[in-house]
Amino acid sequence: MTTLEFDGVTKIYNVRGAGQITALDDVSFTLTSGRTIGLVGQSGSGKSTIAKILTQLETPSRGEVRLDGAPIPRRGAGLRAYRQQLRMVFQDPFASLNPYHSIRHHVERPLRLDKVVPKDEMDAEVRRLLDRVRLQSDVIDRRPHELSGGQRQRVAIARALASRPRLLVADEPVSMLDVSIRLGVLNLLADLQREEGLGVLYITHDLATARHFSDEILVLNQGRVVERGSADDVILRPQHPYTQQLRAASPDPESHFADYTGGAR
Predict the structure, then answer these.
(1) 3-class DSSP state for residue 262?
(2) What is the full DSSP assignment across 240-260?
(3) Residue ranges of the alpha helices (H) in 41-178?
(4) The pTM of the whole model exceeds 0.85
(5) From CA 217, how far away is CA 220, in angstroms rounded?
(6) Chain Cα centroid distance, residue 263
């Protein structure tokens, strides 16, 4: 089992003219393979800062991130090995794929960089990954602009899976998609999480999907975790005033989820 520990992490930015801004304040959680943590909060709550630290685009001011008990390397082969274990699915499938390259290129590139399969198996592996995310192989030589938003996000998921990671960070993975296709992408992520035994950090502001696609939920407010617990407990029986405000300001989790499913549960 793969275990990622986010231990007492604080992130402070020095902003010209504004002094120091604390984006994260003593945040801790543990993500393990086979589990999904929903990270819920409004814009500016610190969700994206957590994603940046996990992907080593930022470093903590205090605290530590550990993979299987060992601190994350900051450079070299160790950092590369860590990044092969943890991959990210970005919010915007329109921006995360290079419009000048084919779908084949996008999925094949991590296979080459991480030497996942021999060269003569590349084509078969690309097609397997596309099939894994429920795309027909005829998209392989198309460009991203020839695909729908949902198809593009599935390509982004296939690219993330190419290195055979154990952990995924999904940063608002359906917020840029039409409501009618969001459920299909979320169900795909849930199936992959279960079948591949992935640990998933699901970052969202949507309480309904957080409840239905997470085992545990953490609620962030101004960089601090103000509530955590099982998905049903946090969403249906919130204890902290901030979580209660989020709950009151959001569509009913039951009826809103029905908007995705057409009433099916």
Answers:
(1) coil
(2) SHHHHHHHHHSPPHHHHHHHH
(3) 47-54, 76-85, 103-113, 122-132, 149-161
(4) yes
(5) 10
(6) 26
